[in-house]
Amino acid sequence: MILVNTDYITGKELEMIQLVKGNTIQTKNVGRDITQGFKHLVGGELTAYTEMMNDARALATKRMAEEAESLGADAVVNIRYASAEVMAGAAEIMAYGTAVKFK
């Protein structure tokens, strides 16, 4: 499965199938939240949250690719990511793009 954020793949003629997406909702871990709260006092990167968001993006991307594969797609083009707070302490990450077949 080829995943790109462009609307083309060099050397390939594409037939669009449909929009595909994958998402996940992540919440803060209380222990993580306390330790990261201390970091707020001194400044710097909140590495536990960075890791959580990286994992969330990877999972959303995997779910999007699985949906594309189930449709018989060869690739997903024009991939985008979105995030939104669902409730206090919980965020949704969504990956979406266009599933395509090679002609």
From TrEMBL:
- Coiled-coil blocks: none
Organism domain of life: Bacteria
Please give the family membership noted in the entry: Belongs to the UPF0145 family.
This protein's name: UPF0145 protein AR1Y2_2647
Q: Which InterPro entries match?
A: UPF0145_dom_sf, UPF0145_YbjQ-like
Matches recorded under HAMAP family: UPF0145 (MF_00338)
